[in-house]
Design a protein that fits this description.
Structural class: mainly alpha
Largest sheet: none
Number of strands: 0
Mean pLDDT: 86
Low-confidence stretches: 121-127
Radius of gyration: 20 Å
Helix content: over 70%
Length: 222
């Protein structure tokens, strides 16, 4: 069990504290934080920050990983992939995503901006949050398809396309103060379900979006 004397545990805790500080700075002051601001918020010096992170990209990746973990945690909480209907499961996942973004809109902007506008060619892009989330969901989707011996080829592309659509539409939502989170969830849920349903139909899988997944699996196995 890690203790306060465990160097790895101390390093993990120190990194988490800097990520916490980065969140607070970005939430409060916008998506253009300086490393000095983050270090100051953490009650540390900039050299100490760089003892925990190799460079800006390393810190940015840790921030992205935190957001990806938060999204996935909320997306899969309190529901069962097999017992829930696909449409309600999808809506639940997108609602969890929207909740995280609504609480940290500047962090989302920061990650998107960091990927597309870095002027420092030595700084690698931060972790692709969309790729991380899509990989997790494609793994779940593939396991469901395999349970009925269905062809899983292309499921990773379908999930990446679906998540990409969500991320792209998030910019529109954040830039439109008249669009409520519930409306965003409604629109994106319908869009993503349409994409996934089309993918399944190409594989001759007729999935009723309002029936629990286990019913469809039982029908396909029968």
């Amino acid at each position: 069990m890690p203790t306060s004397r465990d160097p790895e545990a101390r390093r993990t805790r120190a990194r988490e504290e800097f990520v916490d500080a980065a969140y607070r700075v970005i939430d409060a002051h916008g998506p253009n934080p300086s490393m000095n601001d983050i270090a100051r918020e953490a009650g540390a010096t900039k050299p100490r920050l760089y003892r925990q992170f190799a460079d800006k990209a390393d810190l940015y990746s840790a921030v992205a990983q935190r957001m990806a973990d938060e999204v996935y945690s909320l997306a899969v909480s309190d529901f069962n992939f097999l017992l829930d209907a696909p449409v309600s499961a999808l809506r639940h996942a997108i609602t969890g995503y929207a909740d995280v973004v609504a609480r940290h809109p500047n962090v989302f902007r920061f990650l998107a901006q960091s990927r597309s506008t870095s002027e420092d060619s030595t700084v690698a892009p931060p972790l692709d949050i969309g790729r991380d989330i899509a990989t997790r969901f494609s793994s779940v989707a593939a396991s469901i398809l395999k349970s009925v011996d269905a062809d899983t080829a292309g499921i990773d592309y379908a999930c990446r396309a679906a998540v990409g659509a969500v991320l792209a539409a998030t910019d529109l939502w954040l830039d439109d103060p008249t669009l409520e989170a519930a409306d965003f969830v409604d629109q994106i849920s319908a869009l993503v379900w349409g994409l996934l349903d089309a993918f399944l139909r190409r594989k001759e899988i007729d999935l009723d979006g309002n029936d629990p997944i286990f019913m469809t699996l039982a029908r396909l196995k029968g």
